[in-house]
Structures are given as structure tokens and as C-alpha cells.
């Protein structure tokens, strides 16, 4: 595929030009070549737009998507989009089935054929650089601490010692700020 103007890019990606400009501004897309009517976009831009759409379907915020796709080359992005197309759609199941599937996929990556770097899978890309660690496959328990009306802190247990110390500091600061006890609720 050759170069595309903004209208062709938008038609193929099924988005508006305003969205393209916003994504460039936010760092989700690299700037196009040229300026004004001579502006041209490549297949790499189109692949990134498709990958952004796929990651949005996984309910990732744009800031997180930007962090995850910025370091990827156009070839890696195109490979991820192609991989997503080859996946067969899964039958809808229970929420528990969905969670089990997400947890089991988060640890897998597929190596690339002739590339020097491993090619991340869609699930690995979605799990990469996550600010929250993926919980173990076993059971977890959630605690809710209320500091004021509409202000709560939810904590998934168990925590590591380091995380527990950080939570203790956070709770102490929140109690001081809100003057509340931060009582645990089921």
C-alpha cells in the first residue's frame, strides 16, 4: 500500500480526521510526512490506528495505549494487528470464564520468526507495563476503606510486604487529610 491522504486514512480506519490529529498530538501516532494538502500517511499509521482500536476494545485508556505502542516498530504493530485478525472470536461465557482467560493469557508471548526481538502477543501487550500486578491464579480478597462520602480505597489482598508498607503510608496520609478512620467494609 502506498501513501494515503487524510481522507483515505480515515476511510480505511473508520475514524474522523479530528481523531487522527488528536492521536498525533497525544503521541499515539507519529506525525505525517508533509504539511497541508501534501500531508501523507503510511501503512504504519493505518496499522497503529487499528491496534489502538483493538486495545480500546480491551478497555485500556489512551495514555496507557500510548505507552505500550510507542516503542513498537511499524512491523511489530502490523504483526499484532494480523495476529488479532487470525484469532477466532470466542463464545461469550461467564464473567469467571473471561477473568480466567485474561489471567491465563497475560503470561504468554509468541516469539517472532526471523526477528531479533520477540514479538509481543496482543494479550502480552495489554498486560505489559501495567501499573497493577496481575493477581495470582488463586483467590483474592478485596478490602474497601471509606474516607469520606464518595471517597474510597479498594485494596486487593494479599499484598507483598513492600506493597503493604506503601498502603499503610497511603492510609495514614488519607486519614490525616480526611480526618476519617478509613474503616474496612466488605
Terminal CA distance: 56 Å
Going by helix content, strand content and strand pairing, the class is mainly alpha
Mean of the pLDDT scores?
Answer: 76
Q: How many structural domains?
A: 2
Overall description:
The chain is built from eight helices and three strands, in the order αααααααββαβ. The chain has 186 residues and is mainly alpha-helical. β1 and β2 form a beta hairpin. The longest helix has 18 residues.
Protein topology:
Elements: H1 6-13, H2 17-26, H3 43-57, H4 62-69, H5 74-86, H6 95-105, H7 122-127, E1 141-148, E2 151-157, H8 161-178, E3 183-185
Antiparallel strand pairs: 1-2, 1-3
Features:
single chain; 186 residues; mainly alpha; Multidrug-efflux Transporter Regulator, Chain: A, Domain 2; 2 domains; three-stranded antiparallel beta sheet; 48% helix
